[in-house]
Model the fold of this input.
Amino acid sequence: MIIVIDGPAGSGKSSTAKELARRHGIRFLDSGALYRAVTLRWLEKGRPGREEFIELLTDIDIRTEADAENFRIFINGGEVTEKIRSGEIAQHVSRVAAVPEVREFINRYMRDLVKTGVYIADGRDLGSAVFPDADLKFYMDASLDERAGRRYKEMREKGQNVTLDEVRDNLASRDEMDRNRAADPLKQPEDALVIDTTGKSFDEQINEMSEIIQKNSFSKTAITKHLKS
Ligand code: CDP
Done:
């Protein structure tokens, strides 16, 4: 069983998915974090060329630990959960994520993972390409200015030294790359429920989505039954 949330950078997908996972007693899957982790590896390996990096993918061992609150990532045994949130990774991740072999590698990992439990996942292409048969699909959006403002606040709170302009430029250029890449671009699936969060409080938006989840029989009983079958 899987619920997916797609949308552009900074639209609030991750915090929403986390909170919904907590409320409904299911697990959170952060697909962007997987792309960030692979990008970290690419940087650590000295930014190899495409062919060389594709070969290196076979040596990457990803492990994740997911519950409702956290999505911890380990690469070849070392935890990288915090490290992958840096500005340097944000700068390069969309280029790494545009490589079809990288996408196949991560998609395979995610498809195997969701066989082990009930997940709510956030990403760009989950409803359109990775899980076209997802039980429920959301697409979240908000204006670029609102998304940039939120991400800026979040990064400053974590002590990162960025300006609002830098954050806005990074979101805009990632959106552009994510929408226009050949392999599984960011796309609003036809059968997704669109949630525009511009001007909405976090609570309002969570309540709206939570009700939809309830109506779609993602009740605790249905989930427990699914896990037992
Ligand atoms: O949280 P934020 O919206 O900043 O981005 P993220 O979810 O951490 O994803 C980082 C990057 O990974 C995105 O800008 C995309 O380039 C890529 N990504 C992707 O291509 N496909 C996904 N399913 C998820 C992320």
In short: The radius of gyration is 17 Å. The domain at 2-217 is CATH 3.40.50.300 (Rossmann fold). The beta strands are 2-6, 27-30, 62-66, 71-75, 78-79, 119-123, 136-141, 193-196.
